[in-house]
Amino acid sequence: MKKLIVTKKYNNKKLNKFLKDQLPSLSDGLFYKTLRKKDIKINDKRVSENINVFTNDEVIVYISDNLLETNTNLDIIYEDDNILLINKAVNIEVTGNQSLTSIIHKLYSNCGFLPMPCHRIDRNTTGLILFAKNKEALDILLDKFKHHEIEKHYLALVYGIPKEKHQRLEAYLFKDRKKSMVYISDLYKKGYSKIITTYTLLEKYSNNTSLLDVEIETGKTHQIRAHLAHIGFPIIGDGKYGINEINKKMKTRYQKLASYILKFNFKEDAKSLNYLNNREFKINITF
């Protein structure tokens, strides 16, 4: 059993949105099963529908704690005294309550410095996340990311097949914080920021989907997802910028997007991290 209080952030938001953020291991299936059994109370009243919640509502979820325990088995790709490279699973945030970072902090609680993430990916994007294990490494890596001296590649399964095998795309992005959405424009508009996204076609399939390698020179919120959708190649499984009919047909719940290559291309002195220069880490992804 879990007792939770709704904060202002979730005022007038759907119950499932609030619970999935608070309980990352709560699957859609378990949520709706619990609703059907009327095992969720809001302000001491049992509910059976995915209704909206409001600030200061008390939500009680009657689910066995063992079903809600966050899996702390990390998929560690590489680790040394300075860095920790994790293959992040789907449906977990990089930072925040009950996030990948909070799990790592629990596991490394006896260390003098709690490992900190050097970049982020979306909750439903899987793949490589780099953590620094000391203050010097964190400062160096944040600077290297800022100056594009760490190369990140994403693998994306999209609907449609680009005619151009390789393209460097420039556009403008606006972030609507209230709707948790971003919008893309080919022309500059007030409040929009420039974005640069490069893709390379790796494979094309008979069901009108294709596999792309994607790099971003500007790391804006939802940039890859929104930019690819803007040019007509939405990511399969993307419930926000994708095509719902296609997602249902493909029977996928999560977006087919993964951070799969991380390469260190230092142009300037990296001090204690110089040994990482020209090293590449890659994970195998199967969509």
Brief digest:
This protein has 287 residues and is of the alpha+beta class.
Structure in words:
The chain is α+β, with helices and mostly antiparallel strands and 287 residues long. Among the domains are: 2-68, RNA-binding S4 domain (Structural Genomics Hypothetical 15.5 Kd Protein In mrcA-pckA Intergenic Region, Chain A, Roll); 154-259, Pseudouridine synthase (2-Layer Sandwich), CATH 3.30.2350.10. Helices cover 20% and strands 33% of the residues. It contains 7 helices and 17 strands. Strands 7, 8, 9, 10, 11, 12, 13, 14, 15, 16 and 17 form an 11-stranded mixed β-sheet that branches. A hairpin with a 4-residue loop joins strand 12 (166-176) and strand 13 (181-185).
The average pLDDT score comes to 93
Structural class: alpha+beta
Give the overall shape: globular
Low-confidence stretches: none
Main sheet overview: 11 strands, mixed
Here the CATH topology of the domain at 154-259 equals Pseudouridine synthase
The CATH homologous superfamily of the domain at 154-259 is called Pseudouridine synthase
Task: Work out the oligomeric state of the chains in this entry.
Answer: single chain
Strand proportion, as a percent range, falls in 25-35%
